[in-house]
Amino acid sequence: MLSLQLAHRLENRHVLLIGAGDVAVTRIPKLLPTGCKLTIISPSLHDKIRATFPSEWHDGIPLGGVITNEHWNSQIQQSYRVVNDTYRQEQLDLEPAWSLILVCISDHDVSRQIYEDVVAKYGSAQMINVADVPPLCNFYFGANATLAQGRLQILVSTNGLSPRFSALLRDDIEQRYDSQAGQLDLAIDKLGQLRSRIRVIACNTNDVAFRMNWVKLVTDRFGLAYCHVMDVEKLSHLFTQMYNDATLQTVTPVAVTDSDLPSHDYMLQHYSQL
């Protein structure tokens, strides 16, 4: 059965990570850049995880201690809280809700007990990932390829069957497109600018379908190879003209089709910065 791959926005949302060993080390670099408020529970802490703590914590955290990062904000990529202790059920009450719960310990019996505690408290809809036990996961991490200064993220997933194969394919994608990172970055920026502009021009509820289809067709016209040379100003004028023509006789704009747009060569000649 296929899984639904989604981009999960976690900024300022609470995430719980139980365990701080080798597996947890692979999760941290994916979590902290999201700006989530990460709470870590573990009696021992991997050195690479300690590096995510504020400097004043580096001299040691007392066993059983609970320390919260008072200077935390979503931009600093640091852990929000650490509980230097073994897992106990009452620790789930540290926050009223968790966007994600990750269990990264090697003892499968304890992992299953944590899973059962979580489901009993929050229900089966709670997002939880139990490392190395796919049946106890309702989401998977996969391997993330990050390009264009983080603007472009590609998730490669085998639905938990082979994380290493996902990582190999991810590495291959990054190597193939590394030389084009600047071009991809510029293309994404320009498409974002274009979408923002036409959203102001066609701002009514009835305009959504027309606007989205127009952007899709224009993006396809330029293709991966040429989106970075788009002239946003000229394309905004083209959209205004086509939108006005489409709304002459009706409140809801007539759907734009592929044949309504100029050809690929014409677009490059008149609506690009080549």
Automatic annotation (TrEMBL):
Name used for this protein in its record: precorrin-2 dehydrogenase
Organismal lineage: Eukaryota, Fungi, Dikarya, Ascomycota, Saccharomycotina
Cited InterPro entries: Met8-like, Met8_C, NAD(P)-bd_dom_sf, Sirohaem_synthase_central
Coiled coil: none
The UniProt record lists the keyword Plastid: no
Taxonomic source organism: Maudiozyma barnettii
Keywords attached to this entry: NAD, Oxidoreductase, Porphyrin biosynthesis
Listed pathway(s): Porphyrin-containing compound metabolism; siroheme biosynthesis; sirohydrochlorin from precorrin-2: step 1/1
This enzyme's EC code(s): 1.3.1.76
Any one of the GO BP annotations: siroheme biosynthetic process
Domain Siroheme synthase central: 149-175
Source domain of life: Eukaryota
